[in-house]
Amino acid sequence: MKTIECKAPAKVNYRLDVLRRRPDGYHDLRMIMQRIDLCDDIRISLSENPGVRVACGKEGVPDGPGNIAWRAADALLKLSGRCTGIDISIVKNIPVAAGLGGGSSDCASVLMGVNELLELHLTDEQLMEAGSKLGADVPFFIFKKTALAEGIGDKLAAVEAAPAWLVIVNPNLAVSTAWVYQNLQLTAGKDEYIIPRFYGSVADICAILANDLEKVTIGKFPVIDQIKQKLLQVGAAGSLMSGSGSTVFGVFAEEANARKVAEKLSLESDWFVAAVKTL
Ligand code: ATP
Fold first, then answer.
1. How many domains does the chain have?
2. Does residue 146 sit in the same domain as residue 43?
3. What is the domain-level CATH number for residue 152?
4. Strand partners, 8
5. Which of 11, 22, 39, 159 has the largest CB neighbor count within 10 A?
6. How would you write the pLDDT of the chain (279 residues) with one tens digit per residue?
7. Are residues 169 and 216 in the same domain?
8. At which of 157, 191, 209 does a domain end?
9. Whole-model pTM over 0.85
């Protein structure tokens, strides 16, 4: 039976402004989102045994229907009206509940992979529409470009950002995104800030680094601020928490410096540390 193997990349937020709470309980956001080459490995196979099966085997990530990748395959299988089986295996390399968008990226990869395997010929726009019903960050991973994301994160415009090396540090803490938004105190006056669409250098990227969710997550986990300070001390041009945390990244222009810092931090701590390139 036909099989597809794909890589589902993580993301970081160079910027995350929470503009306002919406009547439906979600928040209007303004984010700059960047994919990185830290990826989950996904294998999708058609089978004669009808239905969707997902095997992941990672603590904190459900197998079966609780997995967002299962819901992606199930949605397209229903849409196709076909009576086939889809077997998905996921090797999680992206830390879970870490602000790196791993679940959303797995979901997007499965939508694109099943579209190909079942020869559904859905356009990226149609896949993004299907993805937005599964998770707010899913369309971004189908968009496949650095993006200004607005609305709940699903209204996307391409931005140009210079390539950079990032040192990703996760202190092995899972953070609930819902908890962070519930504990957020909103401040007014964000709309006037015009966010650039072009970042020609690492310095341009570092000039906009800001995340409204940092205060909430750092309030509960002060180690996140310690990691930010540490990354700056060892030479990062800028440092920020990604999404709702708990991952922090430091920005570097040079690969060699990023690798040196990643090696040093992984020797000094039991944190998850990786030097990665932007995509
Ligand atoms: P979000 O902001 O969307 O919560 P995140 O990057 O902080 O994203 P994820 O790693 O996507 O966090 O995980 C969020 C939750 O989704 C986890 O608690 C996990 O149990 C659940 N989940 C379901 N499917 C997956 C998947 N394929 N990969 C990771 N987590 C998944």
1. 2
2. yes
3. 3.30.230.10
4. 40
5. 11
6. 799 999 999 999 999 999 988 998 889 999 999 999 999 999 999 999 999 999 998 988 999 899 999 999 999 999 999 999 999 999 999 999 999 999 999 999 999 999 999 999 999 999 999 999 999 899 999 999 999 999 998 899 999 999 999 999 999 998 999 999 999 988 766 666 789 999 999 999 999 999 999 999 999 999 999 999 999 999 999 999 999 989 999 999 999 999 999 999 999 999 999 999 999
7. yes
8. 157
9. yes
Asked if 11 is an active-site residue, the reply is yes
Distance from Cα 170 to the centre of ligand 1, integer Å = 15
E strand residue ranges, 183-271: 198-199, 210-211, 238-241, 248-252
Q: Write out residues with Cβ below 6 Å of ligand 1.
A: 60-62, 67-69, 90, 96-104, 106, 135, 137, 177, 243-244
**Whose alpha carbon is nearest atom 24 of ligand 1?**
67
Q: What is the CA(101)–ligand 1 centre distance, in A?
A: 7
Same domain, 147 and 168: no
Of the candidates 80, 141, 153, which has an alpha carbon nearest to the alpha carbon of residue 107? Answer: 141
Q: How far is the CA of 61 from the centre of ligand 1 (A)?
A: 7
Contact 64, 71 (CB under 8 A): no
Which amino acid, one-letter code, is at 6? C
Q: Which domain-ending residue is among 104, 123, 157?
A: 157
Q: What is the rounded distance in angstroms from the CA atom of residue 269 to the CA atom of residue 274? A: 13
